[in-house]
Amino acid sequence: MAEICPFRAMHYNQSGVSGLEKVITQPYDKISPEMQARYYELSPYNLARIIRGRASATDTSQDNVYTRAARDFHNWIERGILLAAYEPAIYPYHQEYTLPGWPDSAMTRHVYIALLRLEDYVSGFVHPHKQTISLPKAERLQLVKSIRSHFGQIVMLYSDPKGAIEAELGRVAGEKPWQHLTDEYGTVHSAWGATDASIIESIIEAMRPKKLVIADGHHRYETALAYRDYCRGQEKAGTVNDQRGEYVMATFVRMETDGLTILPTHRVVHSLPDFSWERFATAVRESFEFENLAAPANDPVWVSNFREKLAVAGRERPSIGVYAGQGRAGLLRVRREMDLPGVLPDVAPRLARLDVVVVHRLLLERALGIDPQAVREERNLHYVRDFDAAVQQVGRGEAQLCFLMNPTPIEAVRDCAFDGQVLPQKSTDFYPKLLSGLTIYWLDNPAGI
Residues 8, 91: contact at Cβ < 8 Å? Predict the structure, then answer.
């Protein structure tokens, strides 16, 4: 079952910092070196100093990224920069945003933050939807061990067709927000604390039978599982375990909400030793209908039309755009008569029909000869969220071609997860990201959970 509970979140003392915008950050895995430098400049209390610390060539086992993060965290608590909430609460959290490239769009996502009792995937209540890699999990585990805190959000999808839970929390969200800020991307974030016992109990009961899908934060969830198991080992060794390691902080998002946005992630290919556009175009015609859409890359009307054609084609069958420079572009539609599960017998039928699987198996691997290991290591490709940026990189000669993608539908994410099938990396990009630092789950909070 999905067991959630309220908690006394650690949070920034707004009278002790000069604006939440200066201390709260994007998730650690989205913080580039440039963002890290900017965050450090913004405030001596910016959360990046803890979740994305700077390593030094002189680091030792006594003085390193993790020990400095623990030192700063406890120092901020002692100085009153970070405070514990007065009462255990569930935290409604709203994000008002526009879609990248669509400035006239206006959307709002209603979610809430609570603790979730950790369940192994085999339990059948929590389902991953994509693969993860080991290094980020190892780094995150070391940080959690050092500080005994969870800072980032794990996005958990749940089904509630009638929106009963959102409606219940809406009673609280009509009040003035407890925290409110606008991030660097223009998204407005507002959070409240729901402490009413009747509201909390109704949400706990409504969530019990639900199955959850990890939308974003697989590394964070698996790190929390590893830390839970570490705590259990400590208990067996005689160390006291107060059960707090059995929980992780998570954000719950209704699958049916209008504010659930998945952006595509485009594949940009480079450094192929013998790439030939003519040879590629000939090779793909066996599996794809090829519509020539060649035009200059710097024509904004062409880019807009290309994006629209790709979206329309994708509603009917798997479709991928390809751009290899001026005069070399096209729309690839999987041939109607093609039996994708038959062509990819080692892939589950539901997965075989997804654009992200088609692009990896039929285009990257078969047409271009980039083997799966090279794909995993990103030797010949990198991933770009912005459609225009992917096209421009090829246009500037920084890459040989790019594959332009439609977003993976939420229904596909849900169904594959429930079937126990995981998507390739970079199959989904849930937008906007949930900020780190609005709430912190400190396992050693003397006030308790």
Answer: no
| β-strand partners of 214 | 156
In DSSP notation, 109-137 reads EEEEEEEEE---GGGSSEE--B---HHHH
Q: pLDDT, tens digit, for every residue of 111-158?
A: 999 999 999 999 989 998 876 655 567 888 999 999 999 999 999 999
CA distance linking residue 390 with residue 267, whole number of Å: 8
Cα radius of gyration rounded to whole Å, the chain: 23
SS3 (DSSP) at 366: helix
Question: Counting runs of H as helices and runs of E as strands, what totals does the chain give?
Answer: 15, 21
Within 10 Å of residue 345's Cβ, how many Cβ atoms? 8
- Name the token pair of 232: 């259990």
For residue 257, give the 3-state DSSP assignment. Answer: coil
Length of the chain: 449
Cis check for the bond before 409: say yes or no (omega within 30 of 0).
no
Structure tokens belonging to residue 180: 């409110």
Around Cβ 275, how many Cβ atoms within 10 Å?
16
Amino acid (1-letter code) at residue 87: E
Query: Which structural domains are found in the chain, ordered by start?
Result: 4-261+431-442 (3.90.1530.10), 265-406 (no CATH)
Residue 9 near residue 153 (C-beta atoms within 8 A): no
What's phi and psi for 416, nearest 5 deg?
-65, -40
CA 239 to chain centre: 34
Q: Helices 197-207 and 164-173 meet at what angle, rounded to 10?
A: 160
pLDDT tens sequence across 8-53: 999 999 999 989 999 999 999 889 999 999 999 999 999 999 999 9
Q: Which two tokens stand for residue 112?
A: 């809430």
In this structure, what token pair is assigned to residue 10? 């650690």
